[in-house]
């Protein structure tokens, strides 16, 4: 899909079409899973090349951050969470020229939707291409911060359930659904890892914009320099927070595995105690089940009640002893 955004008298106008005049006059061109014809139309209108999907997926910085034909190419990775699917990273390439801002993507992450809403509310942010890039990166950083906050809140709930003060009895430990907790911890770890990858790509993009990675410093006004520095500080703080969350996830993972071991041991203990309790009655029953001729109790009229009493006592006494020692 190809959309062009125009700012006229402070108002935003969106057109869908690949006519040469529309593309050349647009302040922002958005390509979402474009067809080869749409790619060609943008290349013809702007006199530059549009990266392929394979080129966008490359991980080396030289393929993600470079200047060509007077345009800057910046590829970042955003966390995308399609409904009922695992989170994944979606590459978004920004092409910045002196007059226009172009975005190329093959997914529709939430951060991009938030940026579109921001543009719709304040169209002037795309009047200057570098302002548009900075606004987009700031929106992505805000979205990653929301994701990390969501992860942190979820981990707090998991920790509360895992280390509940009343979860000291064997019954509670056995009944707790630790497998479901393990899956939740795994999902949190996966999401935190992808958020970290996104933040690292943003770090490289911010450094590229400030001219730190290619050794030159492009002309920037004071406001842009301040925004870049603030952006870099925010990214650094989020990386530190993400590292803390990953360490907390590892701690909860180890604790959960320890609880699973305790749970299994509790089950084995119950089975072992049950075996010990029923072993003496089984022994008594086996003794009097033998078919020897000379057994005095066989012809005694109180022999059967005596055997029943012996089996009950041999089961009750171990149970009472285990309860007294606190093993049950």
Characteristics:
single chain; 328 residues; alpha+beta; Beta Polymerase, domain 2; Methane Monooxygenase Hydroxylase, Chain G, domain 1; 2 domains; 7-stranded mixed beta sheet; 10 helices; 7 strands; 60% helix; 14% strand; transmembrane helix; cobalt ion transmembrane transporter activity; nickel cation transmembrane transporter activity; CorA_MIT; cell inner membrane
Describe the protein in words.
The protein has helices at about 20-25, 35-45, 55, 60-65, 110-120, 130-160, 170-175, 180-210, 220-285, 305-325, and strands at about 1-10, 10-15, 30, 65-70, 70-80, 90-95, 100-105. It is an alpha+beta fold. The protein has two domains: about 1-265, CorA soluble domain-like (Beta Polymerase, domain 2); about 270-325, Magnesium transport protein CorA, transmembrane region (Methane Monooxygenase Hydroxylase, Chain G, domain 1). The chain has a seven-stranded mixed beta sheet, with helices on both faces. A hairpin with a 4-residue loop joins strand 6 (about 90-95) and strand 7. The radius of gyration is 34 Å and the shape is rod-shaped. The two termini are about 65 Å apart. About 25% of the residues are buried. The mean pLDDT is about 85. It comes from Terriglobus albidus. This is Magnesium transport protein CorA. InterPro entries: CorA_cytoplasmic_dom (IPR045861), CorA_MIT (IPR050829), CorA_TM1_TM2 (IPR045863), MgTranspt_CorA/ZnTranspt_ZntB (IPR002523).
How much of the sequence lies in strands comes to 5-15%
The count of strands amounts to: 7
Q: Per the principal axes of the C-alpha atoms, what is the gross shape?
A: rod-shaped
Biggest sheet strand order reads 2-1-3-7-6-5-4
**Mind describing the biggest β-sheet?**
7 strands, mixed
Assign the CATH architecture of the largest domain.
2-Layer Sandwich
């Amino acid at each position: 899909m190809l959309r062009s955004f125009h700012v006229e008298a402070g108002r935003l106008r969106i057109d869908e079409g690949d006519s040469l005049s529309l593309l050349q006059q647009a302040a922002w061109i958005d390509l979402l899973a474009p067809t080869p014809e749409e790619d060609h139309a943008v290349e013809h209108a702007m006199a530059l090349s549009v990266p392929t999907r394979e080129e966008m997926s490359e991980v080396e910085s030289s393929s993600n951050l470079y200047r060509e034909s007077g345009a800057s190419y910046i590829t970042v990775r955003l966390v995308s969470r399609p409904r009922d699917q695992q989170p994944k990273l979606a590459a978004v390439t920004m092409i910045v020229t002196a007059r226009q801002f172009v975005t190329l993507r093959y997914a529709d992450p939430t951060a991009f939707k938030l940026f579109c809403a921001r543009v719709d509310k304040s169209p002037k942010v795309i009047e200057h291409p570098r302002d548009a890039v900075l606004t987009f990166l700031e929106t992505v950083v805000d979205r990653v911060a929301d994701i990390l906050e969501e992860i942190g809140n979820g981990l707090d709930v998991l920790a509360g359930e895992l280390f509940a003060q009343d979860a000291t009895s064997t019954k509670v430990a056995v009944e707790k659904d630790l497998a479901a907790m393990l899956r939740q911890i795994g999902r949190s770890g996966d999401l935190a890892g992808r958020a970290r990858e996104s933040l690292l790509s943003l770090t490289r993009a911010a450094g590229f914009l400030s001219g730190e990675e290619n050794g030159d410093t492009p002309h920037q006004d004071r406001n842009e320099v301040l925004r870049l520095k603030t952006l870099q500080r925010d990214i650094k703080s989020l990386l530190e927070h993400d590292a803390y969350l990953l360490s907390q996830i590892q701690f909860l993972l180890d604790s959960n595995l320890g609880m699973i071991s305790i749970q299994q041991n509790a089950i084995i203990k119950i089975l072992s105690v049950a075996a010990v309790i029923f072993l003496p009655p089984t022994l008594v029953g086996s003794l009097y089940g033998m078919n020897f001729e000379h057994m005095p109790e066989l012809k005694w009229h109180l022999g059967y009640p005596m055997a029943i009493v012996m089996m009950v006592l041999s089961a009750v006494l171990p149970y009472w002893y285990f309860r007294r020692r606190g093993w049950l």
